[in-house]
Specification:
The structure holds two protein chains of two kinds. By secondary structure, chain A is mainly alpha-helical. Helix content of chain A is 75%, strand content 3%. Chain A contains five helices and one strand, in the order αααααβ. Chain B has one domain (2-164): 5'-nuclease (Rossmann fold, 3-Layer(aba) Sandwich), CATH 3.40.50. Chain B has helices spanning 7-13, 22-25, 33-36, 42-54, 64-78, 87-99, 108-116, 125-134, 142-150, 156-164; strands spanning 2-5, 28-32, 57-60, 102-104, 121-123, 152-153. In chain B, strands 3-2-1-4-5 form a five-stranded parallel β-sheet. In chain B, helix 7 (108-116) links the parallel strand 4 and strand 5. The relative contact order of chain B is 0.16. The model of chain B has no long low-confidence stretch (mean pLDDT 94). The chains are: A mainly alpha, B alpha/beta. At the A-B interface, helix 1, helix 4, helix 5 and strand 1 of A face helix 1, helix 7 and strand 6 of B. Strand 1 of chain A pairs parallel with strand 6 of chain B, so a sheet runs across the interface.
Chain lengths: 72, 167
């Protein structure tokens, strides 16, 4: 079970990395860029929003603009 | 059946055109007070407010006994092999363990928790849609509609499992 859960995390991370709009992400101020990169690596919306200094839903809108899928 | 939802579930689910079908499965969906403060958009707030008014949703207060259990769950999760829980979804799990609610969350750590260290059931939109389909309330292709409308993606394995089942 642990292995299949880890595999799910790997698959989700790969998808986030692949579909992200890196030009858009790289054009953002450092705080927002760092938060999106954290989200791509972890899928953790709550902590990513805190890094960005945004509410979770505001950060989710930013995630959608950056074309990063929410995978779970 | 009753549920308790975190922000990751609500902000995706609120974008879905068939969102009100949630209440065909759950008599009440509880929203922790802290989760409400993470919701920002007018459309999501309006949907939540409408159902708080009708009684389909209800605010769940922050209680010390569940805060303590939630912190222990966060600590426990950090020792495990998968990603650790954050406090908001841990709080939902702590409440659900005690009160028999289903946790509604799109958080991967919360999903993993039910297989590793909690008795609480954790449903993503996937499990909600599965249950609605098994009741004949939604068509087979609803999962693709959900993905398109919410920009949420389910893992390939789950999509294969979905396709292999025919209602």
């Amino acid at each position: 079970m642990t292995e299949s859960l880890a595999e799910r995390e790997r698959e989700a991370r790969e998808l986030r990395r692949r579909e992200a709009d890196w030009n858009y992400i790289n054009s953002l101020p450092p705080k927002l860029k760092t938060a999106l990169m954290f989200y791509i690596e972890t899928g953790d919306l709550y902590v990513a929003a805190k890094i960005a200094g945004l509410k979770v839903e505001e950060f989710n809108e930013l995630r959608i603009r950056a074309k990063i899928p929410h995978v779970n | 059946m009753e549920a308790i939802a975190d922000a990751s579930f609500l902000i995706d689910w609120a974008r879905f055109s068939l969102r009100d079908l949630l209440f065909r499965l759950f008599r009440v969906v509880w929203i922790p007070e802290d989760v409400l403060s993470e919701i920002q958009s007018e459309s999501t707030l309006m949907w939540v407010a409408e159902h708080l008014a009708s009684g389909d949703m209800s605010l769940f207060p922050t209680l010390p006994e569940y805060r303590d259990r939630a912190l222990r769950l966060v600590e426990l999760s950090r020792r495990g092999p998968t990603r650790g829980l954050d406090f908001p979804e841990a709080y939902c799990i702590a409440v659900a363990e005690d009160r028999g609610y289903v946790v509604l969350s799109e958080n991967g750590a919360a999903y993993a928790a039910q297989f590793l260290y909690t008795t609480a059931k954790v449903w993503r939109a996937y499990e909600v849609l599965w249950e609605l389909r098994s009741k004949g309330v939604v068509p087979d292709d609803v999962i693709f509609t959900y993905q398109e409308e919410t920009k949420h993606k389910f893992p390939q394995g789950d999509l294969q499992k979905w396709r292999s089942y025919r209602s």
